[in-house]
Amino acid sequence: MTVSERFLKYVSFGTNSDESSDTCPSTESQLELGRYPAEELKSIGLCDI
């Protein structure tokens, strides 16, 4: 994956917050954005993410 493709993937996640939420991050899509690069890093051999 090129840098441009990776950037476009990252910005495709909807990360609007939910002001009525008591959690942080406040939406599932924010959690999904956090998990995506973590999985990428695991796939190249990193383990303490």
What does this structure look like?
By secondary structure, the protein is mainly α. It is built from two helices and no strands. It is flat and about 35 Å long. The relative contact order is 0.15.
Brief summary of the model shown:
Helices cover about 50% and strands about 0% of the residues. With about 50 residues, the protein is mostly helical.
Record keyword descriptors for this entry:
49 residues; mainly alpha; single chain
- Helical amount among residues, as a percent range? 40-55%
Shape estimate: flat
Query: Average pLDDT across residues?
Result: 91
Radius of gyration: 13 Å
Which stretches of 5+ consecutive residues score pLDDT under 50? Answer: none
What structural category arises from helix and sheet content?
Answer: mainly alpha
Number of helices: 2
Calculate the terminal CA-CA distance, rounded to whole Å. 21 Å
The H-and-E topology, N to C, reads as HH
* Biggest beta sheet summary: none
Strand element count: 0
| Percentage of β-strand residues | under 5%
Secondary structure topology:
Elements (H helix, E strand, L loop, with lengths): L2 H9 L16 H16 L6
